[in-house]
Amino acid sequence: MTEQPRPREIAAIDMGSNSFHMVVARIVGQSLQIISRHKQRVHLASGLDEHHNLDQAAIQRGLSCLAMFAERLQGFEPENVRIAATYTLRQSQNAAVFLKRAESILPYPIEIIPGTEEARLIFLGVAHTQPDAGKKLVVDIGGGSTELVIGEGFNTKLAYSKHMGCVSYNKYFFPKGKISSKNMATAQLAAQQKLESIATKYRKKGWQMAIGSSGTIKAIKEVLIGRGHSDGVITPKRLALLTEDILKFKQSDDLDFVGLSDDRKPVFAAGVAILSAVFKSLDIDEMKFSDGALREGLLYEMEERFRHSDIRSRTATAMAEQYNVDIEQAQRVKQTAEMLYGQIEPQPGMTKAELAPLLSWGALLHEVGLSISYPGFHRHSAYLLRYSTMPGFNLEQQTVLATLVRYQRKSLKLEEMPELSIYKRKHLYPLIRTLRLAVTLNGQRSDEPLPTITVKADKEEWQVNLPEGWEESNRLLAADLLQEQAYWRKAGWELKLE
After folding, report:
1. Is the pTM value of this prediction over 0.70?
2. What is the rounded distance in angstroms from the CA atom of residue 309 to the CA atom of residue 127?
3. Electron transport among the record's keywords (predicted)?
4. What is the DSSP letter of 250?
């Protein structure tokens, strides 16, 4: 038996102004599989003096962190590691001193990247870890700079990096952690002035969805969740109320919000001030958070082939390969499901636009559980789709996939359906019926194409029209359809065969 080649592992390090991040991934087929993440708060930007020199304490904090990362990277070839340094080392007059000492600790080149390149890579990281939502505005508030990008697919249309970050603004506008309405207003105004030159350009370009990335916006999202906003969506009103509550405290160390960690407290007010200014200047209605950021952008940049596709498609294809799915059968079921769903949901509404791809991916992956065992494989499939790491899919989407494959065959125990927050059960029922019919119609696993089949849907009552005389020459399939009819009836649904 020939030994399988070991998957290639790649690593990216983002040397930010507030934290250093490292992410390690394995290349599996056409997909990236994140296998470890490491983060260390370094506060590099707070070590910049008025002459833009890094003090020794900040240099030492950075080097200590890199020494820890170096332990994880032992044995990695240089072509498999990419390290990017951002705002603070861009500004630092003595950056060369830091880089020289870092070389002896970490034997890989450290790139100090320009602000616009940082913005582009952040957008790439978000785009690869977020389902495509048309034109996106991505905002990343770091320790020393804020990146603002508008792009579509994996291509940026507009990208700027502004010299304002939660560490630098904390130092200038909230000295010694002092919070006051004057400090907050001054910080917000300063940020708005920074954005003045580009705001009109961004509003004119427009976007379909605003997305925030990295620690500052993540912290704000988590505090909003702690305040009862379970969706974690950031809005102008929620930001304004949060700002009012921040001003009830005199010192940043005293901030007491559910979801706010102790090490984030010192720079939280500054981060909220900057984000409030971004919202006001660009007239943003709402913003969601994405886990993708610069480090993910670096990873995907290392492998050109990961570009130009919805990451969810790559995830689904890689998963089908990983579990040795019979691709020909999966494609037959997928094509039949798409054909049927197109007939019963002819109007391309928003819900259909979101759910139709999930039906396709569910069909592609409906047999992943066969890799565990045949008896109850639909349950095994559901478990894998619910609990596997699936880049690009959120928890709700994974739950939908798991639900579809769980109900692809056997009895319809609909009372066991999980609760959903984005979609309603009534949205899923047509998908379940569609996938069940597609699985049944392809039960013989034949290469012979199916004849023309039409379906009419009226809520719980569906009528399937088969070619005349076709059931006589396909008696096994006819028996399977009758069994399917009985399953539907028990669930309170009606399947008519004409």
Report:
1. no
2. 10
3. no
4. S
CA distances from 54 to 58, 60, 80, 95 (A): 6, 10, 29, 8
Residues in the chain: 498
Name which of 190, 167, 162 is nearest 48 in CA terms: 167
Q: Which of 451, 435, 453, 446 is nearest to 367 (CA)?
A: 435
What's the maximum distance between 2 C-alpha atoms anywhere in the chain?
Answer: 88
State the DSSP string of 453-486. -EEEEETTEEEEE--TTTTTT-HHHHHHHHHHHH
CA distance 238 to 246: 12
For the chain, the first-to-last Cα distance in angstroms comes to: 52
Residues 248-272: b if buried by 16+ CB within 10 A, e if exposed: ebeebeebebebbeeebbbbbbbbb
Helices (H), 393-474: 395-406, 425-441
- Domain ranges, residue 483: 311-497
pLDDT digits (tens, 9 = 90+) for 195-246: 999 999 999 999 999 999 998 999 999 999 999 999 999 999 999 999 999 9
* CATH number of the domain enclosing 183: 3.30.420.150
pLDDT digits (tens, 9 = 90+) for 10-32: 999 999 988 999 999 988 877 78
Kindly state whether residues 141 and 73 are assigned to the same domain.
no
Domain assignment of residue 365, yes or no:
yes
Cβ pair 475, 444 in contact under 8 A: no
4 located within any domain? no
Residues in contact with 11: Cβ distance below 8 Å, sequence separation at least 6, in sequence order:
22, 23, 24, 25, 72, 73, 76, 80, 81, 82
- How many Å apart are CA 209 and CA 400, to the nearest integer? 22
Q: Rounded to the nearest 5 degrees, what angle is found at the Cα of 49, between the Cα atoms of 45 and 51? A: 120
Residue 90, token pair as written in the block: 């861009």
> DSSP character for 450?
P
d(CA 123, CA 156): 7
The C-alpha atoms of residue 145 and residue 430 are separated, in whole angstroms, by 48
The alpha carbon of 226 is separated from its chain's Cα centroid by a whole number of angstroms, namely: 21
In a domain, 304, yes or no: no
The CA-atom distances, in angstroms, between 475 and each of 440, 445, 482 are 13, 15, 11
What share of the chain has pLDDT > 90, as a percent? 59
Query: Facing residues of 39 across strands?
Result: 21
CA–CA dist 478, 115 (Å, integer)? 64
Closest to 16 (Cα-Cα) out of 120, 158, 122: 122
Average pLDDT over residues 163-176: 93
Which residue carries 């996106």 as its tokens? 136
Render 14-63 in DSSP notation, one character per residue: EE-SSEEEEEEEEEETTEEEEEEEEEEE---GGGB-TTS-B-HHHHHHHH
Residue 7 confidence class, pLDDT cut points 50, 70, 90: confident
